[in-house]
Amino acid sequence: MYKLNSRLTIENLALWQHLAIMKQSIHRPKIRKRDRIFWVMLSRLWHGWKNVLIVVQPETVIRWHRKGFKLYWKFKSQKTESGRPSTDKKVQKLIKKMIKANPLWGAPILHGELIKLDIENSERTVSNMIKRYNVGKPPSQTWRTFLKNHMHNTYAIDFFTVPTANFKVLYVFVVLWHERRKILHFNVTMNPTAKWTAQQIVEACP
Fold this sequence. Notes:
This protein is of the alpha+beta class. It has helices spanning 2-22, 33-45, 58-76, 89-101, 107-116, 123-133, 143-150, 194-204, and strands spanning 155-163, 169-177, 182-189. 51% of the residues lie in helices and 13% in strands. Helix 2 (33-45) packs across helix 3 (58-76) and helix 4 crosses helix 6 (123-133).
């Protein structure tokens, strides 16, 4: 009896909402922002919402929900601070000189030498500068040869996201084995920390 009364209450509420829209204009009712919010929320709370929907198509309500989801996460992801400060020109000249003098040095070694000189710079920035300035790199094997030699122990590791109805995001971690094209491991979390990710790699490749 309680469920029946709740269903009737929801249906009546939906019908009253239709009437409120129709009263605005005889020819073409104007759907306001609060009307969209009402139907989006009703679609998440009641499975029979499509049966009483008149003013628009159900696909329109679904499109409203997706648009709201995008706007919500666009607002959440707005930058509050400026980006990483640029490297000083004198430091850039020094790094360029070190790269040309030591073409076989990788980013970790060069980054370590900069730390010894009390120069603070991220290893990622050093790596990008090596790619930019190191034009005399020794020849290496082709990509086809590399794949042929290492395909048996090459894995692809990635995250992808799954949005939920209440504007949350689930992070799915996947490990693929290239040679067999087989999923070795996957897991889902709402908080993908470095420790959690490292544990997934250990479980996938013990």
